What does this fold into?
Amino acid sequence: KAGVTQTPRYLIKTRGQQVTLSCSPISGHRSVSWYQQTPGQGLQFLFEYFSETQRNKGNFPGRFSGRQFSNSRSEMNVSTLELGDSALYLCASSSQGDYTDTQYFGPGTRLTVL
Amino acid sequence: QKEVEQNSGPLSVPEGAIASLNCTYSDRGSQSFFWYRQYSGKSPELIMSIYSNGDKEDGRFTAQLNKASQYVSLLIRDSQPSDSATYLCAVNMDQAGTALIFGKGTTLSVSS
It folds into this structure.
């Protein structure tokens, strides 16, 4: 099976712009989670989608949003970008979305905000 | 605020030695515990998952869980230079989904 794919892999934006990142889960996986990784804060949970519904949300401002489509592909959007949004954004998928499930991570999207 | 704590390291061990990585968590209700390995510039990959008290072994890796002490550890036997990476401890946020709370990771360096 193909792994989790994320596009684009690298992105450079300026403050105030918005950005959309895309994630395609492993075929058959129904749960998609998004994480932000920075050197200072480490890996932090953003949100999780299961069957097109947001099931859980981390402690991030409303500028961060996401959605999941009927084919389980997911997008996340960050509006009004700030310098502190520069990070590696990782998407992870799991098959049943159960708390014991293994999550498989994609390669990430490296976002740089200038 | 649920937290997962790890020593940042670096933890340096010689080739062939046992590396011991430790993690504590704040939420007594946590049920699922995971160890991920992350090489520089790469995404995390799962090494071990553990759900019950005690030890779980997989090849050179042993995960240990003590829920009473809220403590998880990972032992790497016969450490190899290829084990040099950052090891992330993760705990499920709740039982409603797959959301994980990660520690900030321990950097392991294995010298040949």
The mean pLDDT of chain B is 94. The two ends of chain B are 41 Å apart (CA to CA).
